[in-house]
Design brief:
The chain has 299 residues and is an alpha+beta fold. 41% of the residues lie in helices and 21% in strands. The termini are far apart. InterPro entries: DUF2358.
Length: 299
């Protein structure tokens, strides 16, 4: 009987201890889970932003390689790679400085039209491209040295895309190269899964140099093609070489197109015609911006 009473007393004492024991706060583990989820969300957003930038830059490079050789046939086929505030700058020949995608496309169309008046059978080719990182020293038009294309800073890119993304010791030689955009996008998307670290800002490609070559036959008449059926003496084809600089904004879109060099220099008549056309598009762009509605505060 005594043992039963003792056992009952122990059981009641144990129950009393459980009731009186202070419960652990439920806020702490919930808060920890919330903070960890927030950190994961921020990391995913940073990773997504870096991946979007890389995809946009890769798509822009692919579009330029595909569009530039066909520029005089179809113009700028893909205009989504350009920023709405893109700047076209020619500091050496015409001093042209225009801003806005609408004006940029207009000046490009005007260039196609003006060169079509002077030349026939125009062949435009991209011969070399070269990229620079954000904190990398800019070599300008020195395109003959070792390449500085560092897409392989994002793991696996150089091995997956050897035709467009070389290693750090070589630049890209191109000869009428045409690489489908879908192949670059699929390869870049495939390599997103292999990224072990988020690319730093210094790993981003922010500048792209494009060396090009233009060959064309001068027209016999100023404004009309030679439609005469009589045989004529063969004409020597004119050749020009030049260098373009493209810069990318924080979203990976082309925000500046700079004409670095054209050899030999364009003629004065061509520069005058091109300057008048660019002036027209600058005035048109200014009028377009003024017509945009603005929200005012009523007095």
């Amino acid at each position: 009987m005594a043992s039963k009473l003792a056992e009952r007393s122990c059981r009641e004492l144990s129950t009393l201890r459980c009731i009186c024991r202070p419960s652990l706060p439920l806020v702490q583990p919930s808060s920890r889970r919330f903070l960890s989820a927030t950190r994961r969300c921020e990391q995913q957003e940073d990773q997504q932003g870096a991946d979007d930038y890389t995809l946009n830059v890769g798509r822009a490079i692919s579009a330029l390689q595909n569009d530039l050789p066909l520029f005089f046939d179809q113009g700028l086929a893909d205009t989504s790679i350009y920023s709405n505030n893109i700047i076209l700058y020619d500091p050496h020949y015409t001093g042209m400085h225009v801003e806005g995608k609408h004006v940029y496309i207009g000046v490009s169309n005007m260039l196609r039209w003006s060169l079509g008046l002077w030349f026939d059978d125009i062949l435009f080719s991209v011969t070399k491209i070269r990229t620079y990182m954000e904190n990398e020293e800019d070599g300008g038009d020195d395109m003959d040295g070792g390449g500085v294309t560092h897409f392989n800073a994002f793991q696996g890119f150089s091995s997956t895309l050897p035709s467009i993304i070389p290693g750090p010791s070589q630049s890209i030689e191109l000869s009428h190269m045409s690489l489908p955009t879908s192949s670059i996008l699929s390869s870049l998307q495939h390599n997103q899964r292999s990224l072990s670290t988020i690319p730093k800002s210094s790993d981003k490609i922010v500048r792209l140099y494009v060396r090009w070559k233009l060959e064309a036959t001068p027209r016999t008449l100023l404004l009309l093609p030679d439609t005469s059926s009589t045989p004529s003496l063969p004409q020597n084809r004119s050749q020009y070489e030049g260098l373009f600089l493209y810069k990318f904004d924080q979203h990976g879109h082309v925000c500046e197109h700079r004409i670095e060099s054209v050899v030999p220099s364009p003629s004065r008549r061509a520069l005058t015609l091109h300057g008048l056309g660019s002036l027209w598009w600058r005035l048109r762009g200014a009028l377009t911006r003024r017509r945009q509605p603005e929200l005012g505060i009523p007095l």
